[in-house]
Amino acid sequence: MSLLETRGLVKSYGGTRVLDGIDLTIQAGEMVCLIGASGSGKSTFLKCLNLLEPVDDGQILLDGVDIAEPDLDPRPVRQRIGIVFQSFNLFPHMTALENVLLAPCRVHGRRRQDVSPEVERLFTRFGLEDRMGHYPDQLSGGQQQRVAIVRALAMKPDVMLFDEITSALDPELVGDVLDVLRTLRAEGMTMVLATHEMGFARELADTVCFLDNGRMLETAPPAEIFTNPQNDRTRAFLARVL
Amino acid sequence: MPTRREIFERRQRRRANLIAALSTGAVLLAVCVLVPLSPGWESVQRAFFNGAIFARTFPGLLEAFLLDVAIFAWCAPLIAILALALAIARDLRAPALTPVRLAATAFIDIFRGLPVILVIYLVGFGIPGLGLPRPWNSPYLWGSLSLILVYAAYTAEVIRSGISSIHDSQRAAALSLGLTETDTMRYVVLPQAIRRVIPANMNLFIALQKDVALLSFIGPVEIFRQAGVYKSLLANFTPYVGAALIFLAVTIPATRYADHLMNKQRRQQQ
Ligand SMILES: Nc1ncnc2c1ncn2[C@@H]1O[C@H](COP(=O)(O)OP(=O)(O)OP(=O)(O)O)[C@@H](O)[C@H]1O
Ligand SMILES: [Mg+2]
């Protein structure tokens, strides 16, 4: 059984179908990259996956259980599916450490001194051990984004969603953040990544999905989709970005 | 070596300062020369700017002002607490809490819509008029309550504007971690919102300090009333000028500080 699966996912904003029947299957340990033009629905799809946006129709199966059920409590799902945003969205009034500790303490009800050691290990692993006491505005964009990743990881999610997490970064900071993704990939984290970094998708993805106007037009391993795209629109898109 | 631009700007700045000094000096000179030349000046000076009376009444005024400060000091924290509760209550979404939301909305509409002095009269005369026993008939109590009601309504709206100024992505980030709506409000939205509205609320509290003088209409002998007593006693308006100076000594620095905070915040947001 797949870890996460969508069937005919539909989402509209004021009459326009932003997601128009998306089918996608994600296996445990898999890394899926979503590519597509701006406005094609990548962010919306990711937000639907962890129920930040209510879905209009279709199913989302997490371990076979439909979580798109409208009257379902979204909180347990969100604890299992972490998301990192393009604009970091760290809480500016808290230090990096407090940002990360908030959810384990409030949501899991754990004590600060119990969580701290494992959180500090996460900071160390991503080269942030001397930045724990800093406020977000004292950190570079790349450091902020890594703290945001640590914050999501501290909840020990089964799946991580990344929404163009390097797009807001200066080019020289992108590498550090991509290294974090490489580490997670090596550890077998299940990940869904909306990205404009085609080189990175090619290097690490198991599956690349091309999204166009809310439809998943092509789904294939990177070697196929980048060298021999089947769909005309995929070909046109890749010709523009590569 | 200064650059050409720096030399130019320095010359410009010197010119601007010179013009500003000359024009200000001219206006001051005109005021000092022309006002005393006006026919009524002598009597105005005697009635409002009498040095001897000023010196005699000032200590008493200062003492009366302590009561204004005290009233302010016990009203301010209660206003902050009530305002926070109102701001939160107005945005409650749970259907069961609809009556709370409606009550908060009505409260804010009513007390923002009434002149402060009217509320002070209605509450300050009306409630003790019920024939309550001491200490429940104290004008201090009901006068303070009037100020609290009115200013909590204003402050609540300011806090609400702060809450809605926090970008939705902050809420999304908190919710995505599995936090409840309540925790999201308490740990993520409110701390930022309150910080953001501190300057605006400071301006409200400066206004509150001034409006404490309105309580004099229902009894408490605070500075404005004390000045009135001196005026009747000495048949001279100078005590009012003294009272005005005391208010300004508090409100001008406070206003400047609020402006400073506001500017600092604007710079940070850029
Ligand atoms: N909250 C919203 N209300 C209305 N329309 C929205 C909302 N969020 C997104 N949209 C619309 O949905 C469409 C898909 O947006 P989405 O952000 O998912 O695209 P994207 O593929 O992530 O684009 P980008 O590469 O620019 O991030 C766009 O046309 C956008 O205007
Ligand atoms: Mg997007």
From TrEMBL, chain A:
Keyword Protease: no
UniProt membrane topology term: Peripheral membrane protein
Ranges for domain ABC transporter: 4-238
Principal location class: membrane
Protein name per Swiss-Prot or TrEMBL: Polar amino acid transport system ATP-binding protein
Gene3D superfamilies assigned to the protein according to its UniProt record, in alphabetical order: P-loop containing nucleotide triphosphate hydrolases (3.40.50.300)
Protein family: Belongs to the ABC transporter superfamily.
Domain of life, source organism: Bacteria
CDD domains (alphabetical): ABC_HisP_GlnQ (cd03262)
CC terms in the record's Gene Ontology section: plasma membrane
PANTHER family listed in its UniProt record: AMINO ACID IMPORT ATP-BINDING PROTEIN (PTHR43166), GLUTAMATE_ASPARTATE IMPORT ATP-BINDING PROTEIN GLTL (PTHR43166:SF9)
Localization, UniProt: Cell membrane
Pfam families: ABC_tran
GO terms for MF: ABC-type amino acid transporter activity; ATP binding; ATP hydrolysis activity
UniProt keyword terms in alphabetical order: Amino-acid transport, ATP-binding, Cell membrane, Membrane, Nucleotide-binding, Transport
From TrEMBL, chain B:
Keyword Membrane: yes
GO cellular component, one term: ATP-binding cassette (ABC) transporter complex
Single annotated GO MF: transmembrane transporter activity
Membrane topology: Multi-pass membrane protein
UniProt cross-references to PROSITE patterns, sorted A to Z: ABC_TM1 (PS50928)
Main location group: membrane
Signal peptide stretch: none
SUPFAM superfamilies assigned: MetI-like
Regions that span the bilayer: 16-37, 64-89, 110-128, 140-159, 237-258
Sequence ranges assigned to domain ABC transmembrane type-1 in this UniProt record: 65-258
Keywords for this protein: Amino-acid transport, Cell membrane, Membrane, Transmembrane, Transmembrane helix, Transport
Family: Belongs to the binding-protein-dependent transport system permease family. HisMQ subfamily.
Protein known as: Polar amino acid transport system permease protein
